[in-house]
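Box 3.1 A note on notation
Throughout this textbook, protein chains are presented in two layers. The first layer is the amino acid sequence; the second is a token string describing backbone geometry. Keep the layers aligned when reading.
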Amino acid sequence: MRAVIMAGGKGMRLRPYTKVIPKPLIPLNEIPILEIILRQLQYHGFTHVTLTLNYKARLIQSYFGDGKWLGLSLDYTIEDKELSTIGPLALINNLNEPFLLMNADILTDIDFGKFYKDHLKSKAVGTVMLYQYGLNVDFGVIERDSEGDIVNYVEKPSQNVLISSGIYMLNPESLNCIKKGEKLGAPEFLQRLINSNKRVKSNIHEGVWMDIGTKKGLDEAEEFFQKNRKKILKTESEDLMEKERVV
């Protein structure tokens, strides 16, 4: 099973931390977030992972090496310029099977193996994992009728919206709509697939999903991981954790 992790961002919202280390190496309870993700993927049956890198790429390569100490085969694609979420896929030469694509700044308990299998069964060209996100409004919201009369006043309401989790399953044919070297984000890419009459499916994850791309998100994720480590890393091998990394 194959996966691609987008790990090339500069992490501007996490400055000054990311001036020193790239965001994927920022630790949660002493474990870099990207290592947590890789260990989850290995647990769920993935064997080959490609990391797309740009900012401080050598630090990430030096830390993870060939991935054998994680039970994975790791390789790397280096962007000469920022290509957003989807653009780097055109630089990978051997994406000839369905693959998982995800960001490197997510803490989640998604069953990646089940997501992979569900996508294969769907026969869709792509599947987006969604998450129900609570959106809080910091002001009182007014509802009025056609005459301008106020009919309802709700103080600081909250509502749930479905958002992209930054986790996708894609078939190789989806890469046909990406031009090599172009900067391409997920929204435009998915719209291209839809406009080409390709079926794009969605699943909804109802468990844990946390974005560590902000200081607030990082603090919340670290607190959660410290208390719920076994929920995120379901099986931990002490030999693996203590084994000397081959750099």
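The chain has one domain: 2-129+164-242. Residues 98 and 171 are 4 Å apart (CA to CA).
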